[in-house]
From TrEMBL:
Protein name: Lipoprotein
Presence of keyword Transmembrane helix: no
Record GO biological process: Gram-negative-bacterium-type cell outer membrane assembly
Cytoplasm listed as a keyword: no
GO cellular component: outer membrane
A Pfam entry, by short name: LptE
Taxonomic source organism: Thermovibrio ammonificans (strain DSM 15698 / JCM 12110 / HB-1)
Length: 174
């Protein structure tokens, strides 16, 4: 009776446990280190705005753990460079004065596994947004800075998505 019971339960119990040899590699990157953003434009303070946006994006994303000190062969370094910024008028009032502007910012992002020299992924992102020029000069400048912050948030949200998806592909190759 006991032998029949053991023989009947063996296939069910055997399927419930996995052998230690079948443990798979992690399918995603969890640990990131964010380098301060490099600004290659003539716009002052853009690096500060983008570094703050990068910190906010990665510290609030539950998929990533931000390392204060990178760990070799575990941490992915996110190195971002702001390459270009352009602003041009797109809306005019009845006196032909520019009142709405389109701002475009382009960045290059390199993802480097800490401890290695060359990036395993490099990509370019370009995003745009609009702001209006109604109000005093300081109000217009504040709207311009807010536009930069919105663009930076959009860019780093996409960087997080690409890091999550593309690094999973890279890990599966190995």
């Amino acid at each position: 009776m006991r032998v029949a019971l053991i023989a009947a339960l063996l296939p069910v119990v055997g399927c419930a446990s996995l052998p230690a040899a079948s443990v798979q590699k992690p399918k995603k990157v969890e640990h990131v280190y964010i380098e301060p953003v490099t600004n290659r434009t003539s716009e002052e303070g853009l690096d500060v705005i983008f570094t703050r946006a990068a910190d906010n994006a990665f510290y609030t994303d539950p998929r990533f753990k931000v390392d204060l000190i990178p760990v070799p062969d575990r941490t992915v370094v996110v190195k971002t460079t702001v390459d270009s910024i352009s602003t041009f008028p797109v809306g005019f009032d009845s006196r032909d004065v520019a009142r709405k502007y389109r701002m475009t910012i382009g960045v290059t992002v390199k993802l480097i596994k800490y401890g290695y020299r060359h990036p395993f992924l490099t990509f370019h992102i370009e995003r745009y947004d609009f702001y209006d020029a109604y109000g005093t000069a300081s109000e217009v400048e504040a709207k311009r800075k807010e536009c930069m912050e919105r663009i930076a948030r959009e860019i780093f949200n996409e960087v997080g998505e690409r890091l999550y998806v593309e690094s999973a592909k890279e890990i599966q190759k190995r």
